[in-house]
Amino acid sequence: MSDTAAARIMRPMPIDLTDRVCLITGADQGIGAAVARGFVARGAVVVATDLEPPDPARCGDVALSLAWDVADPEAARSVIAEVSAKLGRLDAFVANAGIYPQHDWDELTLEKWRREMSIDLDGVWFGMDAALRPMAEQGYGKIVAVSSVQVRRGPVNHIPYTTAKAGLLGLVRSMARAVGPKGVRINAILPGAVRTETEIELYPDQEALAAKLAGQQCLPARLMPEGIEPTFAFLCAAESDAITGQAICVDHGLTHW
Question: Which of 100, 140, 161, 203 is catalytic?
């Protein structure tokens, strides 16, 4: 192999999402907002959604900013229909929206349990089911569901959340096999301790948290939303077409087994 050919192979290639229509839930803050901004910078046609239309100051110069309560199956079908009508196709769906309340098992009520499941598990299924219709018709699509490393850690004060995020892994594996013949790839990302607005609310002593994580992670630095965005971009890009049904931890080695 010539030096020129070797240099061409080794040359860094940015993840390109030019003209890909990408729909992101929970895009008004945190990971979702960072993914939206990153996708816009990569050339994607981004549809950002949240309970209220996301603020472009946080999610970037998106093509559409829409309200979507992911716990409502009718809303899922309505949003997907609007995206298809206005933009002509749907190439990628990032199911990021979720809630993360803290309570011990003996504080749980049926109402609390059902609320978390309706958003963190049912809501992903409603969006996935709706998004698969245009993707299957066009013969191609990417779906990324946001699970959590808590599935591996088993925290005692996030039981419904952890249960829902574990359920997503089963959903991803089964649906990846079900829709693979349609050209649709489905994967899950398991974020670690990402410094988001929600995390800061739950753990206001960020200095203490950073010190604790530095002793638990293989890489001691804090994981920021912008640091996790490239993994989402890769799974929504053509370069990952050979990957489906997988669960990928992005956690600075918080769980490295």
Answer: 161
